[in-house]
Amino acid sequence: MDFKLTVYSDYVCPWCYVGQGVVTQLEQAYQVEVEWRPYYLRPDTPPEGLPLPDYVLRARANGSEDRLAQLANQNGLTYRPSDRLYNTRLAHEATEYAREHGQANEFHRLVFEQVFVAGADPANWSVLRSTAEAAGLNGAEMQTAVESGKYTQAVADQVQMAYQIGVQSVPTYVINDKYAIVGAQPYEAFKQALGKILNPPPAAS
Q1: Domains of the chain: which residue ranges?
Q2: Helix or strand holding residue 3 (H, E)
Q3: To pair with 152 at 20 to 30 A between CA atoms, which of 5, 44, 122, 193?
Q4: Class of domain 3-198
Q5: Are 158 and 37 in contact, with CB atoms under 8 Å apart?
Q6: Which residue spans within 75-163 are E strands per DSSP?
């Protein structure tokens, strides 16, 4: 049975990055329309970025990186911990250019690789241009369109929509615009949820 999966994520979220593996498994097992949508973990991040906040450092000390590396390995992903909190506004707006040109999901995947494989800054235009080219897009044209402010409101509206439907952390996976699964859950959790959602029991007479 077909279904729609909307994933709210931010490019500085390592759990969103490793969560791509579950999305790939779902695409292989079901007829699913996947849409990645923007969210800002730290909307106050300046263009030059910030040192990692204390809560991230505490989580690393408590073993979060081991869990992330394990999930990445299970999903066939390379994972390199980020050493900085980046500003992701340009990357999200660039994704809207990619969406307009039919390459949103591929561009999204490649930006994640830049951050969590190459250790690159997604606020850097040279990074975004090369990522666009790798996705089959025109990097210079993308930069011009984003810098014109063409996609600023579209991203702001999507982030506001996330707030309105109750998204408070990422990744948040929304099935058929109705059912939410929060966090980097294992594939079995999605499989069980989909079984209930796509094949509900008959109503009592």
Answers
A1: 3-198
A2: strand 3-9
A3: 5
A4: alpha beta
A5: yes
A6: none
